[in-house]
Structures
1.
Amino acid sequence: MSIDYASKIPNNVDLDQNRQLQRALEHWQPKYLEWWREVGPVESHSSEVYLRTAVSVDSKGWAQFGYVKMPDYRWGIFLAEREPSRKIGFGSHKGQAVFEEVPGELRSTLRRIIVTQGDTEPASVEQQRFLGGTCPSLYDLRNLYQVNVEEGRHLWAMVYLLHAHFGRDGREEGEALLERRSGDADKPRILGAFNEQTPDWLAFFMFTFLTDRDGKYQLAALAESGFDPLARSTRFMLTEEAHHLFVGETGVGRIIQRTVEAMKQHKVEAPDQVRALGVIDLPTIQRYLNFHFSVTLDLYGGEISSNASTFYAMGLKGRFDESKIDDDHVLASAEYKLLDLAGDRLVDKHVNAQLALNERLRDDYIADCQAGVDRWNKIIDKSGLPFRFKLAHKAFNRKIGTFAGARVSPDGEVVGEAKWTHHAADWLPTAEDHAFVRSLMGRVTEAGKYANWIAPPARGIDNKGVDFEYVRFA
Ligand SMILES: [Fe+2]
Ligand SMILES: [Fe+2]
């Protein structure tokens, strides 16, 4: 399945065989570019960026690197290879052949799933649009732009499904995806975390570590879908997503490394003394982690969800690694343990597993985050300093579900309003924390130079050096 790069819209879906669909997408394309120019990365349009572009969907070699001006990036439609005789792996229709067209009764449900996923993609580009102005290096600037163009491509992936399978409704949704704006009071993006700001690079790295990881788990659940075009779209998106998580984890890791080096060198541990060295103190990094983690947990929705149960029963959205789970994949009588609030205590509760699928996906996600945090702690370990990062308790600072509005500390203690207020500044980033981090954000654009608050990466991109000129300005 090679990619047709000759057509206006690169694709591996034989777009030239379907004139009507091709025309509809070619009609959407200039509107997409208009959106990119309007709310995509600022002051970037004439820069040449060393980016990867998908040239195949083969896992062995799908990317090609080269300098590109971002408005000329070849955003396209790439579905993973079709698996012959693939079967629905779960739910009421388990064992039946996967479907290529949307059955009438699943239409609105499936459209909603695709629109909700699609909406997150342009939202994050909007959230990150000003970061280029304060990049800590050309390497980081290039990574930011790589994430941005790929989120743009993820939007293309979802808009293709809407156009190809949902007729006029789908085309209208495609337009609406370019009209909503992150953080806009009148026409906000659909999900809360995608209306938050990403004001600085620590926030950006936390976002890519935590919120792009939500993307990974949502996409993985959709990659199990019985609606094969959705499964194949999301499978290829997951390949791209891995880099976004890498950017986040190594970005925070490099900040930690630099802070720890400075602390050791100057033999200081008190946050204000650490800040005086021009690096970010570890407790501030922990507060950022608490914020982005709790906001992202809300993306999984309520603990008990009849929607999630319906998606599963209908074979539309599975569990993470569904095929690797050893059970009946129907879950009619299985139970799942979740946490509940009983007065001022957190208690376990057993519910039907099909109703608890949001919670299960959230738990899988949390375990993955924990592994990343453990790797950060190894960086501190090597220095001999006693500080350790911790993931906040899942009930901390939640706005959706059982714990919405409950006052629970990062350690999982249910606290009263007074204690919450007293400790809020220890647990969540304050205006002062933001101001301090912002004060460090200069703009470093000399090849091989890195801002003082972040260590250079261990290696460059595409076997290039850490001093490679990843972005050339006009
Ligand atoms: Fe994405
Ligand atoms: Fe992403």
2.
Amino acid sequence: MSSALTEPGTATETRSGDRRPPARLHHNNFYTSDLEATRHFYEDVAGLPLKVFWIEPVPKGQGTEQIGHAFFGLADGGLMAFMQYTEAAVQATQVSTQQPDSVHIALKVDDEQQKETRERVEAEGYEHFFFDHGVLRSLYVRDPNGLLVEFAVDPDGHEEMYRTEAERAHEMMRRFLAGDRTPTIPEKL
Ligand SMILES: [Fe+2]
């Protein structure tokens, strides 16, 4: 049986009410070759306290030494996690590699948090840049692992904006997949 819901490459119909979304992001996990530099960046500069530190057995085939696993907390209980393999030969295959800048993690902050983070980032010389998307105003910072971290401030009235976007999201995706490339957000993005 074929329908818009099962055909590959088509945007699905809205099914609000069918699904209960996950409560929040539980954690994102990355690799590091310098746990202390990572702790300093996330805890002291970005303001995410160290919440959990596990010393874990390595998975089969990834050496014999234990892994250090640090979790840094967001205000909603979500976590950003970083693993360090101490065994050099294994670590060499597991450390983070440079990603295109489009691959990044974005953290929601308010104006004051973004300003304070920017001051600390500038004082310590982390690679960073600021970009006003017209929708979001974002500070991007390169963490000690080469990961780009965005500190994003939503515009005034964003609750209404996201409500409106949710109502038309499936329609916009269908349009795009059908070949319509008309931008729906300000040119400067
Ligand atoms: Fe982003």
